[in-house]
Amino acid sequence: MSDGDGFEPTIVVFACHWCTYQAINLAGTSRMKYPPNVRVIRVMCSGRVDPQFVIEAFKNGADGVLVAGCHPGDCHYVNGNMKTMRRTVMLEKLLQDMGIEKERFRREWISAAEAKKWVEVVTEMVEQVRKLGPLKLAEREVVMNE
Amino acid sequence: MSKPKVALYWCASCGGCEEATVDLTERLFDLVEAVDIVFWPIAMDFKREDLEKMEDGSIDIAIINGGIRFEEHEEMVKLLRRKSKIVIAYGSCAHLGGIPGLANAYPREEILKFAYEEAPTVINQDRVRPMKKTTVDGMEFELPDFLEYLKPLDEVIDVDYYIPGCPPTPDLTWEAVSKLLSGEIPPKGHVFGSDKSLCHECPLNETKPDEIKLEELKRPHQVVLDRSKCYLTQGVLCMGPVTRGGCEALCIKGGMPCTGCFGPLEGVYNQGAKALSFLASVIDIEDEEKYREMLEKLGFDPIGWFFRYSLAKGMIYRKKGDGE
Ligand code: SF4
Ligand code: SF4
Ligand code: SF4
Ligand code: FES
Fold first, then answer.
1. Is pLDDT of A11 > 60?
2. I want to staple A115 with a disulfide (CB 3.0 to 4.6 A). Which of A26, A95, B15, B277 is the partner?
3. The predicted structure's pLDDT at residue A144
4. What CATH number is attached to the domain comprising A39?
5. Which residues of chain B have pLDDT under 70?
6. 3-state helix, strand and coil shares in percent for chain B, rounded to the nearest 5
7. Residues A62-102: pLDDT tens digits?
């Protein structure tokens, strides 16, 4: 808890099984330290991350969302990550237009060997989001019996 | 046997949905024959007291269009819910928030400030704003409050069925109402229209290849569309693949791509996000810089492109009392 108010952000990470997820494992087995604020969700390819997932994550309490996959050219499903690239660029703008600060959403390419990059990215993101404070969303009274 | 009782009401609406009902033309007379219209303020002289006097559950079908933006809308739809056996959300505004739901991109204060102070056509030096209560010459007047956000109908009351569209087509309206009146009751929550995407009923679907790869996107005003070829393959956004069918491809036949008014398909809870996802997948640009540049040049507006009718439903908000 670096800040006086003690706010600890929750960052939801969608990590590709073949690269970032392995990098996270490597960071663990190499005893590297990174902030415990992340909740990692493993997907088989970053291209599996439906933009609806990101929106749901924010709705359900995430203060930040990170989508991470294989570097361009390295996707195990040929071009899944190119879809990720095009979707996340669009999502970036959408989320900002919906009033969510830029720093709260990020996309990164992190290979299986890049444990260090994983640590740097999440450390930086947690710091940035911590500074922003909790995600402020409009609250609506909803009488739904879904 | 007494005729079934039907009520019609509008909330934050443009009037187009009321127009759509009148567009039933001769069938409107059949409808009037078949049912007892017990409440329809826009067409007949009914007051709120008339509704209040009715017994709870005595109306068979209430058809409500428009989103919920004023306190008055909230009160009226709650009252209608109490009085009716079946409530139908009619049109995109009641279903998903619709066009007036686009205002949810701005907080209430910003909207009021613009409308009463900053709009170029406004002269209002004293910054007068509508007040809930005012006294003029000793008489007290009360206005319903402008709510924080616009809500689709089912976020205020329990809704039984949905008739989508901006506005719904007369054919679909007729089909839905006659089904309900004949006792063919679909499961609760049913959305009338097709359960397949618009593409399935689009006359241009045959020209659409299995895989679409767009090297460039264009806005509809930047191209003269070839009306014999799938518009999406011509590089403009057509919401057909992610929109419920049932309108018989009206816009397509009129020379315009679909903008999505029939709302999401079954199983999709965020039409806009789904549309974003699908459009991003069919673009064939792998260079991120080039891609960003193209979007920038087009004046990329995800809310306007993907959420034109569904922002109120698809907006990111928290349910009251849901954690922090
Ligand atoms: S759904 Fe369309 S036609 Fe109906 S009230 Fe809303 S804006 Fe008007
Ligand atoms: S994308 Fe649009 S134009 Fe093409 S088939 Fe579907 S609805 Fe028709
Ligand atoms: S083509 Fe699309 S926008 Fe036009 S009426 Fe049909 S669903 Fe609505
Ligand atoms: S397999 Fe890693 S991004 Fe596709």
1. yes
2. A26
3. 46
4. 3.40.50
5. 1, 319-324
6. 40, 15, 45
7. 999 999 999 999 999 999 999 999 999 999 999 999 989 99
- Which ligand lies nearest the alpha carbon of B226? 2
Provide the residue range defining the domain that includes A56. Answer: 11-139
Q: Which one, of A37, A19, A113, A22, lies nearest residue A73 by Cα?
A: A19
Q: What is the CATH number of domain B5-100+148-181?
A: 3.40.50.700
Give me the residue spans of the domains in chain B: 5-100+148-181, 108-147, 198-314
Model confidence at A146, pLDDT cuts 50, 70, 90, reads very low
**pLDDT tens figures, A110-123:** 999 999 999 999 99
Residue B25 has what pLDDT? 78
The interface predicted TM-score (ipTM) is: 0.92
A63, A13 Cβ separation under 8 angstroms: no
Report yes or no: A71 at the B interface, CB cutoff 8 Å: no
**A110 found inside a domain:** yes
The more confident residue out of A139 and B55 is B55
Q: Tell me whether residue A4 is in a domain.
A: no
Residue with tokens 């024959």: B33
Ligand 1 binding pocket includes B169 (Cβ within 6 Å): no
The beta-carbon contacts of B210-216 under 8 Å, at least 24 apart in sequence, are B212/B282, B213/B282, B213/B283, B213/B284, B214/B282, B214/B283, B214/B284, B215/B284, B215/B285, B216/B294
Does A143 contact B324 at a Cβ distance shorter than 8 Å? no
Per the CB < 8 Å rule, is B105 touching A98? yes
Q: How far is the CA of B278 from the centre of ligand 2 (A)?
A: 13
Mind telling me how many Å the CA of B158 is from chain A's nearest CA?
7
In a domain, A2, yes or no: no
Number of domains within chain A? 1
Q: Give the number of whichever ligand sits closest to the CA of residue B310.
A: 1
Strand-pairing partners, residue B12, are: B67
Taking an 8 Å cut-off on Cβ atoms, the answer to whether A90 and B156 are in contact is no
Question: Closest-CA residue in chain A for B154?
Answer: A144
